[in-house]
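Hi all, long-time lurker, first post. I run a small reading group and we've been trying to get comfortable going from sequence to structure in the token notation. Rather than ask abstract questions, I figured I'd post a concrete chain and ask someone more experienced to write out its structure so we can walk through it together at our next meeting. Sequence below, copied exactly:
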Amino acid sequence: MSDTNNNPTQAELDAIEADADAFLDAADAAEGIDPSVLDQVAAERDEWKDRALRVAAEMENLKRRSETQQNDARAFAIQRFAKDLLPVADSLQRALQAAPKDSEGPAAALVAGLELVEKALQGAFASNNLKQVAPGPGEAFDPHLHDAVMEQPSDTVPGGAVLQTMQAGYELFGRTIRPAMVVVAAKGSGPKPGQTPYGEAPAANGEAYDGKA
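-- Answer (accepted) --
Happy to help. Here is the structure in token form:
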């Protein structure tokens, strides 16, 4: 069945309505026209227009369902493979964290190579809609994306917010395949009255000084 019969475009709907309106205007101008005939034509016009709009809405819903099913099928196909690659990404990140920041010579080249590999891997993840979830300090805790492994008091982060990400999580097509392991600020955490967000208290002359120094 062709799309022409089942999927009238908005332009075609407008043309049908315009032709019907023109017919009604011409009929109204003529003498001796039975008003009941005009009412019948108008009713038929409205009925066919309503049917066309319903078909267009059904086709749009079908298109959306088809796109959702395609995404689900693709996600199911690569989800297991993606999960198998996550430990590789974790190992690369741990290696980079342990690498000396002031390395020189061959060691510096090795660190640079690891950084390039990690960047390429994350790029491959992103191109396949596998996105890293690594909330920074102060971000709101999301139980759908984060897994709180412990609580710690904090002078800078309010209670209930993310304090630190211990292991990055990942989501695939908007679905969490591994939550991020995070440390959450304990209840009652956050800057105290008269204290800046970084643990500094105002000095007597109005300037801030570091109370932890």
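A couple of things your group might point at:
Residues 208-213 have pLDDT under 50 and may be disordered.
The longest helix spans residues 35-98.
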